[in-house]
Each structure stands twice: as C-alpha cells, then as structure tokens.
Design a protein that fits this description.
The chain is of the alpha+beta class and 64 residues long. The chain is 44% helix and 23% strand. The protein has a three-stranded antiparallel sheet with strand order 1-3-2. A two-stranded antiparallel ribbon has the order 4-5. The chain is globular.
Length: 64
C-alpha cells in the first residue's frame, strides 16, 4: 500500500478542513511534496509528526 496520500485523504485522516492543511504547509508546520501539481504527504511522516505533538497532562497521562 502506498504511503503517499493526497490533501483530501489527509484532511479526512486528521478531521480538518483542507484550508487548515494549506495554512500549515505555508507556515512550515507540516511537510509535503508536489507531484504533478498535487500536494502529497507521506503517511509515516504525518504519523511521526503527530506523535511528536503529543502532550503529557499534569496527571502523567497522554492527551490527544
């Protein structure tokens, strides 16, 4: 299975609007590559980025 997903798939995966993803691209918060004029995202890079964004609550558990 391909690790590359398009912006629609990423928006669905993250439960976000596509405009938010475009904003994050422009701000450098996430990375992607353009293939044939279409943004593509490596699913493993996105998952790694999500793991790095986890926060630990004061009680010691992870928060989503």
């Amino acid at each position: 299975m391909s690790r590359l997903i398009d912006i629609d798939e990423l928006a669905d995966y993250l439960k976000l609007k596509k405009q938010t993803i475009y904003n994050w691209l422009n701000q450098g918060k996430i990375t992607g590559i353009k293939v044939g004029g279409v943004w593509r995202f490596d699913r493993r890079d996105i998952d790694s980025w999500l793991r790095s964004r986890r926060r630990v609550s004061k009680t010691g558990g992870e928060t989503p």
